[in-house]
Amino acid sequence: MRLLTVAQIAKSFGAQQVLQDVSLTVDSGEVVHIAGGNGSGKSTLLKIVAGIIPATSGTFQLGENTHIGALIENPGFLEGESLKTNLTFLAAINHHSDPAVMAGLAQRFGLDWHSRQSMKKYSIGMREKAGIIQAVMEDQNLILLDEPTRGLDEAALTQLVNLVAELRTAGKAVIIASHDRYTPITYTANYQLEGGRLTRQSDGVPSIPS
Ligand SMILES: Nc1ncnc2c1ncn2[C@@H]1O[C@H](COP(=O)(O)OP(=O)(O)OP(=O)(O)O)[C@@H](O)[C@H]1O
Questions:
Q1: Which of 133, 157, 189, 207 is buried most deeply by CB count within 10 Å?
Q2: Which residues form the ABC transporter domain (predicted)?
């Protein structure tokens, strides 16, 4: 099932052209890697797909049943509130809250679901974990993860690798942007973003048809 079609997108900030003629399709069961150096436009592309900023030209189309979850740059949280309050609040916005799922994800990533610690005291890795959880906790089927390994310890990295594999098996799709060409995650397709252009590098493991 097609979840996303990006067609010939360009994006400029003033005189700076960041993306040119970027096209991409993503189907369920795909795990797409977008590699690129600092400032190559990875976050910009994900923000366009998430509907946060508009493209200068070109189009993108979501599938009829596409539900996006996203971790892009530094996700905003209510800093004075706990993880549980934050995630419950976010889930309530979409009326799609399952406390057991949220608590299970927190436990999986080694975060104390019942802790009253405010999120302003969270470390970089803890914030990243909270960002990953909010991107998947509502059963979203197209998950955008921008540098999701930032600050993660080894146990959390293993959980992330396993989580992405489970999402793929469940027929969802994940787009991961990172600086590294090689990460421990198993991809079905690899792209490089350079000079504003997105180029397919190679196929990884086959996607699992839904
Ligand atoms: N709101 C904005 N206004 C002006 N320029 C911007 C804006 N957002 C991004 N840019 C510029 O667009 C370019 C691409 O930025 P982007 O954040 O997409 O890169 P990135 O590949 O995600 O980088 P990094 O790996 O460092 O996070 C950069 O030169 C950046 O300065």
A1: 133
A2: 4-208
Residue 112 identity: D
Which ipTM score applies to this complex?
Answer: 0.97
The string over 38-73, giving b where at least 16 C-beta atoms fall within 10 Å of a residue's C-beta and e elsewhere, is: eebbbbbbbbbbbeeeebeebebebbeebbbbbbbe
Q: Whose CA is nearest to atom 31 of ligand 1?
A: 39
Give dist(CA 23, CA 30) in Å, integer. 16
What six digits make up the tokens of 196?
Answer: 């504003």
Architecture of domain 2-203: 3-Layer(aba) Sandwich (3.40)
Dist. CA 37–CA 17, nearest whole Å: 16
List 175's β-bridge partners, or say none: 32, 144
pLDDT confidence tier of residue 210, bands split at 50, 70 and 90: low
- Short-list 169, 179, 87, CA closest to 135: 87
Q: Which atom of ligand 1 is nearest to the CA of 45?
A: 18
> What is the DSSP-derived secondary structure letter of residue 86?
H
Inform me whether the pLDDT recorded for 209 exceeds 70.
no
